[in-house]
Amino acid sequence: MIRTSSPILQPIREKVEAGQRLSLDDGVLLYRGDLPLPELGELANLVRERKNGNAAYYNINTHLNPTNICVYRCTFCAFRSDLRDPKGYAMSDAEVLNRGQEAVNAGSTEMHIVGGLHHQAKYDWYRNIIRLLHDTFPALHLKAWTPVEIAWFARQTGKSIRWVLSDMIDAGLGSLPGGGAEIFHPEVRNQICEHKADASHWFETHRTAHELGLRSNCTMLYGHIEKPYHRIDHLLRLRELQDETAGFQTFIPLAFHPENTGLSHITKPSGPMDLRTMAISRLMLDNVPHVKAYWIMLGVGTAQIALAYGADDIDGTVRHELIYHDAGAETPEILSVEEIRRVIEEAGREPVERDTLYRRVERDGSAWRAGKAIAVER
Ligand code: V47
After folding, report:
1. Which of 68, 91, 109, 268 counts the highest number of beta carbons within 10 A?
2. Domain count along the chain
3. Is residue 1 part of a domain?
4. Is residue 325 part of a domain?
């Protein structure tokens, strides 16, 4: 056994090496600034390589935000718009279909669809986006709507979350993205997004989705007003649902970007904080197969290093990302396949193209088919 340079870290190292679960207190302790970051990274890397070897996954994907008009005013959001603001938009069917065609031409396997809760758009407008895209481009996986939208649709229609999810599946929904999670603890949530779906709605939506056979992702928005305790509490709530359903595929820690938000006085998390959070997430979420370093949010350089700090996925080539770019992200809007593979190889990892459900992609130009499912060690 390797000994840690910090005696405080030693019991945690022993647990990680023995494949034992870390507790709330362990997690909070790992956020202590005096604990050596490289050693934390090495522990997270142990778990990462145990689960995923040397592979680093990516996909070819496109974002679609059909509207930015939103009834809510989350303090951290730079993307939203008021109904009558010149910045506000809502896409027509033709615009949605053009985006679908562009995605398919670029070889995308996935469309990531989220947006605002438009004051005047009815449930059918949102459902129609899924139906149109699915009917026209059946091979394109539609990873769409967070629990915030699903709870809104339930409210609009007077139906249950289960009904909304089933109806969206009928229309062509393929899985749920991880957004809308922010920080679950009410001490924080009530200050940054008090009106929108709370933790119980978020978990009910993902639990029901898993019961209906959908896979989903999960996220945590960090680096604003929350404390280490709130982050670890958040991760443990996710771990608990995963014990129950095993429906989460990937966890994505999301670093707060303050520009153009109601929290613009806050300084964005540093590189070391990004890496520490990545590593702690990998260590706490022992039952989630993948941890993603979302390059759009981290920057390409930090995302590359994060592949040695617990992350095994780097998201995709991405086109038309707005949520982070509206909040001051300086990353490019797109990486080509050659670039994303080079970014991964430069970090010493093996690039593996996956589809949304973590099957290897067999590709010939823009034509592709899903191959074998990627097996992850527990
Ligand atoms: O829920 C919004 C966050 C999320 C800001 O499932 C912000 O594969 C930082 O969930 N600064 C949406 N974060 C993005 C998201 C996501 C991204 C990539 C992959 C996947 C996936 C999911 O973005 C929101 C919120 O937590 N967010 N505004 C901001 N200013």
Report:
1. 109
2. 1
3. no
4. yes
How many angstroms does the Cα of residue 351 sit away from the middle of ligand 1? 24
- Determine the residue type at 259: E
* CATH code, domain carrying 285: 3.20.20.70
Q: Could you tell which of 184, 196, 215, 254 is best to mutate to test the pocket of ligand 1, judged by most ligand atoms within 8 Å of the CB?
A: 254
Q: Is the pLDDT of residue 324 over 90?
A: no
- What was the pLDDT predicted at 114? 97
pLDDT of residue 224: 97
Contacts of 221 (CB under 8 A, 6+ apart): 76, 181, 182, 183, 254, 256
How many Å apart are CA 162 and CA 21, to the nearest integer? 32
Atom 23, ligand 1: which residue's CA is nearest?
A: 179
- pLDDT tens digits for range 273-303: 999 999 999 999 999 999 999 999 999 999 9
Token pair belonging to 326: 């509206």
Is 133 contained in some domain?
Answer: yes
CA distances from 48 to 53, 224, 288 (A): 7, 27, 11
Q: What span, in angstroms and rounded, lies between the C-alpha atoms of 198 and 114?
A: 18
pLDDT band at 375 (very low <50, low <70, confident <90, very high): confident
Ligand 1 surroundings by CB, under 6 angstroms: 76-78, 177-180, 182, 217, 219, 221, 252, 254, 256-257, 261, 294, 315, 323, 327
Residue 40 sits in which domain range? 16-373
Tell me the CA–centroid distance for residue 9 and ligand 1, in Å: 31
> Given this model, what pLDDT does residue 1 score?
55
pTM: 0.97
Closest C-alpha to ligand 1, atom 10: 179
Q: Residue 6 domain-assigned? A: no
Q: Which of 323, 324, 326, 355 to mutate to test the pocket of ligand 1 (most atoms within 8 A of CB)?
A: 323
Ligand 1 atom nearest residue 114's Cα? 12
Number of other CB atoms surrounding residue 265 within 10 Å: 7
217 alpha carbon to ligand 1 midpoint, in Å?
11
Check: CB of residue 160 under 8 Å from CB of residue 167.
no
